[in-house]
Design brief:
single chain; 342 residues; alpha+beta; Alpha-Beta Plaits; 2 domains; 9% strand
């Protein structure tokens, strides 16, 4: 009996890609039971870096999840994550005499624009301040007291730091600092001040608003960076297995395809975007375009309604029905014009 492939989020991989990776425990349960487990995870992470050439710019281990800011000089995120999580799970289960999954489904990734300044610092701030947000560091404690994060390692000399942690990029974005005592002190002062603000209600509220894109998006960067990622997504998602993908990346790809098709439809009907904004919500041209987009894309009714300026989404449904059952010669002619686009 034929079974459909399991739906999955598309992974964008290319040499030099930078990611914010988050993975949680299965059913939200703990992935570390004690310090030995945390040490074992960091050992696995180091072994993964040796195998893959990864560069870790920041990390934090929380009770039931972890965060990484990592760079892949080779296009090997998927292979590296498979080895990291599989190896740690085996060692964890062996130590605790357990069986089965340790991690929840697929890990979440946010592709970071590592070529423009500011993004390394933004993501590392989010990662290093996680223990404060989670209440694991009290207001009267310095953040460096939380040992299961890369933050304390930023404050020690290079010879005392694990070799796979790279601090230069973040320090450089802070203000051109280098990996030396002066840079470490400046970074400590900067992060500890952010931690103090995070302990305050208004400060935390501001941070949460600032970090929305890190928590909900699929990329972090400029529109130009997004356009480049969309081209890569097209290569990943295109083909016979397209239906097996889901998530924000898939939706962004599909909406970009729908927008491209909309431009072709407008050209065929000799309309411009300004015509969509100034004309009535239910004109035949909008009805035909709505029908055509639903026929040829996976764009939602909401997306179509917004981009055709049709108002309530129910108008899209009515437009589709009108085109399918219409005996109106003009509506039929519009439909034929759109179908004639090669």
């Amino acid at each position: 009996m034929y079974s459909r492939p399991m739906a999955r989020k598309p992974r964008i991989e290319y040499p030099g890609a930078v990611y914010h990776v988050i993975c949680r425990g299965d059913r939200g349960e703990s992935i570390f039971q004690d310090e030995i487990d945390r040490t074992q995870f960091l050992r696995c992470l180091g072994e993964t870096c040796d195998r893959t050439g990864w560069r870790i710019h920041a990390y934090v281990l929380m009770p039931n999840h972890y965060h990484l800011l990592l760079e892949t000089p080779e296009a090997n995120l998927v292979d590296g994550m498979k080895w990291l999580q599989g190896t740690y799970t085996q060692r964890f289960n062996l130590r605790h005499d357990l069986h089965g999954h340790l991690f929840q489904g697929r890990y979440k990734t946010l592709v970071i624009n590592g070529e423009e300044p500011g993004y390394f610092l933004q993501v590392s701030n989010y990662i290093h301040l996680n223990p404060v947000r989670a209440g694991l560091v009290r207001a009267d404690q310095p953040l460096r007291s939380y040992l299961w994060s890369s933050f304390p390692l930023y404050l020690v000399p290079e010879k005392k730091r694990t070799k796979w942690l790279c601090v230069n990029k973040v320090l450089g974005e802070l203000g051109g600092y280098q990996d030396n005592p002066r840079g470490g002190l400046a970074y400590e002062s900067y992060i500890e001040e952010l931690a103090k603000r995070c302990h305050k209600k208004d400060g935390l509220k501001n941070f949460i608003e600032e970090w929305k894109t890190l928590r909900r998006g699929w990329y972090l960067g400029s529109e130009h960076f997004r356009d480049r990622l969309m081209k890569r997504l097209g290569q990943v998602i295109g083909g016979k297995q397209k239906g097996t993908y889901f998530g924000d990346e898939r939706r962004a790809h599909d909406e970009a395809q729908a927008d491209k098709l909309l431009q072709e439809g407008l050209k065929a009907l000799k309309l411009g975007k300004q015509d969509l904004e100034s004309s009535a919500k239910g004109i035949p041209e909008k009805q035909a375009l709505a029908w055509w987009l639903r026929q040829n894309t996976t764009a939602s009714r909401k997306w179509i309604s917004e981009h055709l300026n049709m108002g309530d989404v129910s108008r899209v449904t009515k437009a589709i029905n009108a085109v399918n059952s219409s005996g109106d010669n003009y509506l039929t002619r519009l439909k034929n014009m759109l179908e004639g686009i090669s």
